[in-house]
Amino acid sequence: MVKRTLAAVAALGLLFAVAHPAAAVDLNAVWPDLDMPGFTFTPFFTERVEYESNIFQAPSRIQDDVIFKQIPGFVIALPFGGSHRLDFGARAEILRYADRSEQDTEHYFVLGNLRLDFPGGLKAGLKEDFAHTSYPPGTELTGRIDSTTNILAPGVEYGFADRYAIGLDYAWTHVNLESRVDQLDRDEHLIGLTGFYRVQPKTDVLLNVSYGEKDFDSVSQRDVTRWLVLGGVRGFLTAQLTSTLRVGYENRQADASRRSDYEGFVANGDVVWQPLERTRVSLIVDRSPQESTFATNFWYLSTIVTLAAEHKLNSKITLSGRVFGGANDYPDKGGKVNGTFDWRTDDLAGFGLGVDYQIQRWLGVGLDWQWTTRDSNFNTFDYTNNVVAGKVTLSF
Questions:
Q1: What residues does 65 pair with on adjacent strands?
Q2: How much is the pTM?
Q3: Is pLDDT above 60 for 52?
Q4: What is the pLDDT of residues 11-41, one digit of tens each?
Q5: N or C: which end of the chain has fewer CB within 10 A?
Q6: Beta-carbon neighbour count of residue 60 at 10 Å?
Q7: Neighbours of 98 (CB within 10 A)
Q8: Segments making up each domain of the chain, as ranges
Q9: CA 147 – CA 134 distance, rounded (Å)
């Protein structure tokens, strides 16, 4: 109790932290011979303190704690060659628990995006997304689970005849989890061909056909083959409305086992509405089969819809909020503790509220609250969790 009280006092003190001013680094100004206008390097450091009411997302014997997070990182923006651009960022999260030091850990994240735009309609890109974290993957697993995920995604697109374009993209995903769930360790491959038709100067309709495989390291019975057909809109629907939403059909077939396959509706992406310069509202949709460790199920169907909003009161204060709901549906029956069998269904819900105050260009503070809950017909998987946090961010 004493440690938690001291941690709460420390969290309050962080909100009034004082730092010395510093300026963002314009590397082109430091080294003019680079001749790369817009080349910037922005290091940052965030001190975040969280109180979490249910750190293992447990249905009973709930344990809470205060978590200190030191988050150093940097962002590089590099325009070059006229129309080309490289964005690259990395950060670490150093987690220290007030009461449960055995949970102390570090997280690492790297995100890169290379975009090449050549004369004549040819575009190419490469995306890299690396995460090493103890947050549970997906919405089925709970607790603290160490995992490493790396996604490498090259792509190329060629525009022709004014309104038409064709794109070829590939994504390799490598997933490695700790030993108690290492049956989900795998490599995923997905290659797709997309046709675009420009209906307005900044609006394309698209049709995508993709083929994929999932190869599991230790449980070959989990290997699957996938076919997807997706349609969607890219760009502006109206002057205030943009879309990356894709909807369609997935056929997921097991290579060897006789477990249930999936054939049905899938969707991913968002629609963003900006009615005012300072107001932004996003509808985010994801419906897809996810890997499962529950009973005899190899997968579950996850459906999540999120509504998020952000409003800038002025140049310094930003309010944000989000609410989400969804469900996890399992294709095969599992046994309950009372000896009966049933199909598992989880109902998911949550919301978050936040406020950020940019005191100076180099100094910002924030407060946020997140509430999540899961209600399952297998009540041993129920949980509710609250996270209340304060943060201070320095940008140099």
A1: 52
A2: 0.89
A3: yes
A4: 333 333 333 333 467 666 666 666 667 788 9
A5: N
A6: 8
A7: 20
A8: 101-395
A9: 6
